């Protein structure tokens, strides 16, 4: 479940072609010399929702370890990698700064926050305080058929884990948790829990990459949790959720 968060709409307009915007090596006083390399593979970003796409790409790079804790990255250099100007990168980085993932370094760019094991343990404790009682209530009230509908989401996490795809595992893990908590009918709860979940997925300084075996074991807990929820086995539900958050530390 870790590593640790549609309604009808008008038909979307055809996507605009991908665009590369030449970006100078320095802008707004940000120095790009002697900085670590940006994410390995250049990604082209569409014109529509550029900021949102850049934000998603940066979050993926954070979870996947492409952006290293303690290192400083400039908006122009990252913009060049994504094929966009520095502006949407700055905007996305400002959002990540609000979330605590990075911090602003004046005249240089943004430093990826170095997190401690204690911070991760605190996140796990808060998540357990929120999610355990909610899942116990849902186990007593939600019909088995609704839990069965979540099987594809659990299987998606298992597929990503089997590939050792950390970024996609993190995304599918949050999707599973959101789907479970949405059954509580409390949007504020889902928003808060998802934010805590996302924060728990950021890498720790000096910690080795998550092993595929750990991801596989983590993903298996999704299926076990659904089995317990369907059976309304409250002690097992509580144990699985608590142990899951603990193992994510």
Task: Give keywords.
disordered N terminus, 10 helices, 249 residues, 3-stranded antiparallel sheet, mainly alpha
Describe this structure in words.
The chain starts with 49 loop residues before the first helix and ends with a helix. Strands 1-3-2 form a three-stranded antiparallel beta sheet. The chain is built from ten helices and three strands. Helix 1 (50-64) crosses helix 3, helix 1 crosses helix 7 and helix 7 (166-182) packs antiparallel against helix 8 (187-200). With 249 residues, it is mainly alpha-helical. It has helices at residues 50-64, 75-82, 86-99, 117-141, 144-148, 151-163, 166-182, 187-200, 212-231, 234-247, and strands at residues 72-73, 102-105, 109-112. The protein is elongated and about 55 Å long. Helices cover 58% and strands 4% of the residues.
